[in-house]
Amino acid sequence: MNLKKGAEIELEIEELAFGGKGLTRIQTEQGGFVIFVVNTIPGQKVKAKVLKKRKKHAECRLLEVLEQSPLEQDVPYQKISGAPYIQLPHEKQIEFKKQASLDLFRKLGDIQNAPELFDEFIQSPLVHNYRNKMEYSFSVIRHDIDTNEEHDDFGLGFKRTGTWWKVENLDKASGLFDEEWENKLHIIREYLISTGLPAWHPPKKEGFFRHIVVRKSFANNELLINLVTSSDGLDKFNKELFIKKLIDTYRDRIAGVIHTINDDVADRAKLEHGPSDVIYGKHLIVEELLGLKFEISMQSFFQTNPSSAEKLYQKVIDYASEGRDLNGKVIMDLFCGTGTIGQLLASQLKEAQIVGVDIVPSAIENAKRNAKLNNIEGVEFFAEDVGKFLLNHPDYKGKIDTIVLDPPRAGIAPKALKRVIELGADRIVYVSCNPATQARDARDLRNAGYDLKKLSLVDQFPHTAHVESIMLFEK
Ligand SMILES: C[S@@+](CC[C@H](N)C(=O)[O-])C[C@H]1O[C@@H](n2cnc3c(N)ncnc32)[C@H](O)[C@@H]1O
Question: pTM for the whole thing?
Answer without folding.
Answer: 0.88
